[in-house]
Amino acid sequence: MKVTKAQAQANRAHIVETASALFRERGYDGVGVADLMAAAGFTHGGFYKHFGSKADLMAESAACGIAQTAALTAGVDTPDFVRAYVSREHRDARASGCTMAALGGDAARQPEAVRSTFVAGIESLLAELSRAGTALDGADPEQARARSLGILTHVVGAIVLSRACPDDSPLADEILTVCRDSILASVDLPGSPSAKTRASARERSAS
Predict the structure, then answer these.
(1) Residues 75-127: pLDDT tens digits?
(2) What 8-state DSSP symbol labels residue 4?
């Protein structure tokens, strides 16, 4: 039975989504084409009907995963983003978590097409965070971008270091707690420890 163009496109999208989750969970070198296609419900031989190489799929699946994170970030207040990102739930959800944290180290050793996808993805996340920062306190675009870059690198690093520890290691949770509080405090966002302390001080002085 001949596969229609629409079905072929749907199959391709399914393979990309499956690959995106598997790569985040196991790393680029931890997933072979045969295993990937089997997980998606297709035969190994069908892979090259859709992709020229595994690297092509790696780049496309990275773009898919990063787009998912950007979509979740859109419209979210920066403090809420930090709390959700630097959390045990995100730390443990490798397959559905942020592609940057799961595959950033792997991407550095991959072909340029994959690394270029990460560049575009980083820019998209920065744009979302910068918009949120500008709306939050009126910072100019350059200031908002600089602050967003600091936040993004810090939250990604926190997840990477926490995941490097055994799941039951107290250090895994300590890294998340310390980094989350530090990020919120350093950028002085509503809800951060420093903001709450000053708000309490103002209330006491006014009473």
Answers:
(1) 888 889 999 999 999 999 999 999 999 999 999 999 999 999 999 999 999 98
(2) P
Give me 135's structure tokens: 């709306």
Provide φ and ψ at 59, rounded to 5°: -65, -45
Q: DSSP label at 168?
A: T
Amino acid (one-letter) located at 94: R
Contact between residue 152 and residue 133 where contact means Cβ atoms under 8 Å apart: no
Alpha helices (H) along the chain: 5-26, 33-40, 54-73, 78-85, 88-92, 99-107, 112-137, 141-164, 170-186, 193-206
Domains of the chain, start order: 54-206 (1.10.357.10)
Cα–Cα dist 57/35, whole Å: 14
Cβ–Cβ < 8 Å for 106, 29: yes
- Look up residue 28 and give its DSSP letter: G
What's the full length of the chain, in residues?
207
First and final CA of the chain: distance in angstroms?
A: 79
For residue 143, the Cα-to-chain-centroid distance in whole angstroms is 22
